[in-house]
Amino acid sequence: MNQDDIIEKYIHSLLETGHPPASVYAFVKNLEISEREFFAQFASFAVLESHIWKRVITDTISSVEDSEEWAGFSSQQKLLTFYYALCDQILDRRSFFLARFPRLSKGDKPSQSLCGMRHAFTEFTGKILDSGKENGEVACRGSLTRAYPLGLFGHLLSVIEFNLDDASSGFERTDAYIEKSVRLAFDVIGTRAVDSAFDLFRFLSGRSWGPSGQS
Amino acid sequence: MSAPDQSSIPSGKASRIAALAGAGAKVGVNYLKHYGKRAFSGDGDRSELDEANASAVYSTFSRLKGGPLKLAQMLSIDKNMLPEAFRTQFAQAQYSAPPLSYPLVARTFKREFGKGPLDLFDTFSQSAKHGASIGQVHEATKGDQTFAVKVQYPGVADSLNSDLAVVKPIALQILGLSDMDVEPYFQEVKKRLLEETDYSLELERSISLSKSTAGQVEGIRFPRYYPELSNRRVLTMDWIDGRPLDRFAREESDQAVKNQVGQAIWDFYQFQIHKLKQFHADPHPGNFLVDASNEVVVLDFGCTKELDHEFHRDYFRFLDLEVLNDPQTFEAALRQLGVFSDDDSPRERELILEGAERGARLLGRPFHDGEFDFSDETYMASIFEMGDDQRKNTELKQIKSARGSADSIYLNRAYFGLYSLMGLLKAHIRTG
User: Fold this and answer.
1) B111 inside domain
2) Does the ipTM surpass 0.85?
């Protein structure tokens, strides 16, 4: 029995009973495999779940990178395409997401189980941002630039939360949210407005208010 | 014409309010400039002021898209509700809404067809060629055919109520209209938008109306529609190379050609209203393209209306000068249209009668001589003036219960729209 089979059985069991299996022992009994076989794949249920969240991201990435149009897209288009494909992926696992995805808005702790997901996502956005720097879509701001992928991960969580709460037909409001928020994100990391604001702030701070020029 | 800033669309409700408040503030500033100017020079140009306000309001509306944009367009058709400058600015709305990203367009395709744009077409433009009120148009090719593919903004229907609720109080302020003036428009925008969000309905109407009109009216043609490449969110038709009517009117210098184009549109409306008893109720300049051989291509059948025979008969009696010139027949004809109510006082009745006669004479004038020259600016001006007078007449305003059938509103709007298209072309046409 491979990883995917075990994952499917786990999701099935959890959604049917409404709670995680009582123990690995109880879980593998129905699978007719040994505990040894289970632990060869996953160290615990928590690791298994963490693997599911990560897989959603990596599956989405490979599905979008495979398309013909991908290479010609701008960074913004790439990120948008990723999110729309992600929503599509979530559709296949929506019940499981609703049952188990750690929700900040519901008071869940930013969980260890999202580590793998974050890693896969930040690596992916790192590539996107690098190509964005080359074509001028992303402004370089020294060490601040390194915080972008993490900021985008926060945005990813907000998209998933929005999607899980969305009650519109076909989840169209999530599409609109993605469209508008990604545009805003690229407005912030792409234009000079932030830099100019920062520059002005730095100019004015530490002096008396006004153009006196004496320091 | 420069499109307003397209890099930022206000997203949340709060920022939409902020965008509108921004327009309110700009209008305020424009007024200050106006009065400041007058204080210094002694003469302020009122129309210049309206112009500046209109662009402020317009750029705000156009950033909101969807419902507010539709509202702007509708107000722009009922031009007697708005000063001239507001109207021309609003008429732009058709062309310059901020675009959707290509990934979202591709997403819509995948959702509705189960296939991406490039699975259905050989080429597909990543950016929109132009905007429509609740969608945008892309150019696509397959084999040697070129298509115009209209893709709808997602969630238009869902966000409609919150959009309009936000826009309402501020629109009232900016436009200086009363709640009662505007409420029916809000209701109608809602109803129509909900109807228009289903492109398969538009497809059906387009095909049926173009089929029954094809070959019947000289100088008019229709794009071909493709049901297999359309669904409720995507509408595919032939790509038409042509100029929108307002641009044509500006650029074309040969008045004979303009007359010919005007005549075609006029005949098209007469044919629909009198023969088909079903008409394209959106005579907006953006819905007509003039092609290289000066034929008029009719687009956008999102809003068509049917006329019943009785109403048609009762309504068009007013074009008859004999009816107009005989007070008793005239009053009886009005009664038949349901214009009077039983508890009208004699004074109210007199007011309604007066207003109706002025309207019928003025609006019927193009029909009375069998031909008419719409380049007569005093004619268009007197229509505005009438609208203005009616708007300002407080006595008339007291009688605000709805009079006459809703059908006449659509028909009046179609005629207003038609007249202003003719005015735009300065067309001299046969009306008989």
Assistant:
1) no
2) no
